[in-house]
Amino acid sequence: MAGFEVAGRRFRTEADYKAALRDQTRIEKIRAQVNMEQPGEVITLYADMQAGKHRFETAVGNDFDDEIYELAQEFKRQGYTRDSRLPDASDKKDRLPGRWVKRRDKENRRTGGKVRKRDSVAHREPPGKNINRNTADGEIDGQMQKEILHELKKRERRRKLAIALCSVGAFLCFGYFGIYYYSAGRTQTNYENLAQLKENVGAQTGTLFHQIHYTEEEDIELEVLEEYQTLYNKNKKLIGWLKIDDTNIDYPVMQTVNNEYYLDHNFNQEYDKNGSLFLDKDCDVVHRNTNLIIYGHHMKSGKMFGSLDKYSSEAYAKKHPTIQFDTIYKKGTYEVMYVFRSRIYNEDEVVFKYYQFLDAASEKEFDSNMQEMEALSLYDTGVKASYGDELLTLSTCDHSETDGRFVVVARRVKEEN
Predict the structure, then answer these.
(1) Domains of the chain
(2) Taking a C-beta distance cutoff of 8 angstroms, is the pair 43, 82 a contact?
(3) Which of 57, 97, 302, 336 is the most buried (most CB within 10 A)?
(4) In the prediction, which pLDDT does 217 show?
């Protein structure tokens, strides 16, 4: 992967890498031709880029475009135009702060380039102001005093308004964080209680069966594992439990007819922006898919899959090589195999989409998917899978790019009960 990096950006294919190199060459030529310290040249460059004179193919070019946009806007805010030009850097005597350069440029345009002596305070007469030139000791006449007082009152009103707005903003921010941490604490308590119910095996009396109807000819009756019976009776959407040792990932896994409901609902079916871990709607734990995919939010508080991206470290993966995922019918232990970053692609993009890999119809198709994931993997775990193995994929958001995803793929290594 290091060989496909340009200007701090990584590229998955050689074609994208070469396009990035072309962008970098274009940018170097532009920097050689344009003095980035000259406002007029920067603003002109930005106008040319807007007009399509300079076109880029990759994110490297987009970064440069953003840089020029921000620089041009800053110069414009300072009052510069395409015709503005600062003194040459070599002319040390004429190197002035930006606001003085602008004042001088304006003065030069007004006087035709001739240097005019500064008006003294006593003789300066702003347009539209009627100054009494005969006032003693610099006394300002009554009209000027009224205008000054009016301006001071305006400034005081603006100051009070700014303080009021800042106070409201601070109140809203504290309120938001208060609600956020209250919600996070409530979520933590709820899931701790659920975990306690799971551990209290034997609280459920009798044997619980879950009858599933697939077709008119096929009725499957399965026994829910004893430790999940109480939880299953509380919410029939429970499909399993996911746990990674020495982490906060110890949650029930839900499944419903869509992949939206549990984005913002908890186990108790209450609104909760933490959401829940949930199994892809098209996965089937009875007629087992090749690959089961579990989704969860990457919460800043660390809840749900907030700590999953720790697997980006190979050292962390070595300390946490296994994942426990039980369906409500069968236990399962999985060994981490691949860790990679991806994203959600457009439907018409011809590229490996891990979230569409649920079943492999043949050994060739299975091997092809394995090769794709191995090529994306951040490191080699040494774990491989063969056609017929059962896989588990954990997926969460990755904010390093738009619609980015962080993915951990594991292989089932043993079966219990």
Answers:
(1) 2-77 (no CATH), 183-416 (2.40.260.10)
(2) yes
(3) 336
(4) 63
- What's the rounded Cα separation, in Å, for the pair 184 and 274? 8
Instruction: Quote the pTM value.
Output: 0.56
* Residue (of 323, 331, 140) closest to 227 by Cα position: 331
Strands of 344-403 (E only): list them.
Answer: 391-397
Identify whether the C-beta of residue 291 lies closer than 8 Å to the C-beta of residue 357: yes
Give Cα separations from 126 to 114, 130, 282, 323 (angstroms).
21, 8, 76, 77
Q: Report helix, strand and coil shares of the chain as percent, to nearest 5.
A: 40, 20, 40
Q: Report the interhelical angle of 39-50 vs 59-77 (nearest 10°).
A: 130
Instruction: Note the pLDDT tens digit of each residue in 198-238.
Output: 766 544 445 566 666 566 566 778 899 999 999 999 999 99
**Crossing angle (nearest 10°) for helices 59-77 and 14-33:** 30
CB 280 within 8 A of CB 293: yes
Strands annotated E in 179-330:
209-213, 219-223, 238-243, 250-254, 277-279, 291-295, 322-327
φ/ψ of residue 367, rounded to 5:
-60, -35
- C-alpha dist (Å) from residue 7 to 162, 335, 340, 368: 41, 35, 21, 31
Judge residue 2's burial from the number of C-beta atoms within 10 Å of its C-beta, 0-12 exposed, 13-18 middle, 19 or more buried: exposed
Contact criterion met (CB below 8 Å) for 250 and 243: yes
**By three-state DSSP, how is residue 193 classified?**
helix
